[in-house]
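Board notes (copied after class):
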Amino acid sequence: MRDLLSLAEELKTFVASLKVNEPLARHTSLGVGGPADFFVEVKTVDEVRRLWAWAKEKKLPVFPLGQGSNLLVSDKGLRGVVAHLAGEFDEVVFDGEQARAGAGVPLPRLARLCAERGLEGAEPLAGIPGTVGGGLMTNAGTPEGDIGALVESVEVLEPAGELRSLPKKDLGFSYRCSNLPGRFVLSARLKLRRGDINDIMTRIQNQLKRRAEKQPVGTLNCGSVFKNPPGDFAARLYEAAGLNGARAGGAQVSLRHANFIENVAHAT
């Protein structure tokens, strides 16, 4: 504990906020996760670079965290530093039909901001409870489209500490996959299209309505758990195996959508 406290005093000199032994269950949509040694909030690229260099010197891992909506964290927690993205990472700047979105921007807010400006393309992201950074890591999307289709470039901090802007051709986007894991995503430049605001808003409302009808919205879950195999759906396979409602401890396969696992009673 003494070592943690001395390291915490150093961290306080260059991060926006800091918590020691912070339970990550408070920061994941599943409500599961033990303590992080350090939970910090970073608001600028300079803060991230200083954190990265400091952690490398101390031989500590750094784990960037958005909304924690696609994570299952061990009850033992995480050693090192969990960095929550705020400040400039939670901003969207528009320039004509382009948008620069920080890695901490929630995907539903990005879709709404684009729609309000009559820019289409981001509607498939309206119901996805994650952030731009996490969405880029997994090429988040729906059958109507994914975030990778909008990307022109992504700004990252490489493992060696170098800032780079990676063009789309180098990002390897495919079904729920990219080559970004291992990098610290900072922002993305997106290419959108002009459209009719009313039509865009209607598509978003239809997306949200379908999601609410078919998925367990408002429960403790991390979204769809398994990728769909070619030519089939993971949820159909679960249902065919009779696994709707199957339970282990406090975790249960959703009765509404079999590809969701819910924390219904203090799951571990």
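Comment from the instructor: The longest helix spans residues 197-214. The first strand starts at residue 17 and ends at 23.
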